[in-house]
Amino acid sequence: MKTITILIADDETEIADLIELHLQKEGYRCIKAADGQEAEAAIRTHPIDLAILDIMMPKLDGYEVTRRIREQHHLPIIFLSAKATDLDKIAGLVQGADDYVTKPFNPMELVARVNAQLRRSMQFNRLAPVNTQVLEAGGLIIDPEQRTVFLFGNLIKLTPKEFDILYLLASHPKKVYSSENIFEHVWGETYYEGGNTVMVHIRTLRKKLGEDQNKNKWIKTVWGIGYTFNG
């Protein structure tokens, strides 16, 4: 059975050691990095299954490390930060994180979140090959195998969750999905106050698709119900 490897990137040694201790009890292999450059190097040289990233790290912050990871990989990312406002959490999700844990934190809660993200990731990997049809609509091309999106010939860089939401909606253009439906399909878990999370991802997805610059509205809001693809 494959050993799952988790990257812990935090410049506070005590915190990294505490996380490592609890994750090793769960049977996970851990690789630690003390700054953003070390974290990026670890991603390049090791088969990482999940990354826990502090945001305020030396050399490269967690946002920049996430941006670079997302250029090549689709592994789950959990931000760990002392920034605790709703705006901070939203910013973390927009940057491409899958979850956000604030300091100080309960180590067992972090372990539970790690387990949940790994379950979702493994579930997605099992289900992803079922439908690999390239979708095209009015200049928009969505390729599920390459996980790429082109709009009028231009590559649109999406986070894994943004891609999954777009492909879900575009695969069923006549169907209206509620926030609950989207959360359960994309996150792979029962809906639990995930409305804001879905809304944030829809908002950033629309912006990347240029809905605020042109008349094309790829994602239509059906008020009081949810969202549908308008291709």
TrEMBL record:
Keywords: DNA-binding, Phosphoprotein, Transcription, Transcription regulation, Two-component regulatory system
Gene3D superfamilies on file: 3.40.50.2300, 6.10.250.690, Winged helix-like DNA-binding domain superfamily/Winged helix DNA-binding domain
DNA-binding region(s) in UniProt: 132-231
Alphabetized SMART domains for the sequence: REC, Trans_reg_C
Stored PROSITE patterns: OMPR_PHOB, RESPONSE_REGULATORY
GO molecular function: phosphorelay response regulator activity; transcription cis-regulatory region binding
Protein name: DNA-binding response regulator
Compartment(s): Cytoplasm
Occurrences of domain Response regulatory (ranges): 5-118
Classification via InterPro entries: CheY-like_superfamily, OmpR/PhoB-type_DNA-bd, Sig_transdc_resp-reg_receiver, WalR-like, WH-like_DNA-bd_sf
GO cellular component: cytosol; protein-DNA complex
All residue ranges annotated as the OmpR/PhoB-type domain in the record: 132-231
Record-listed 4-aspartylphosphate modification sites: D54
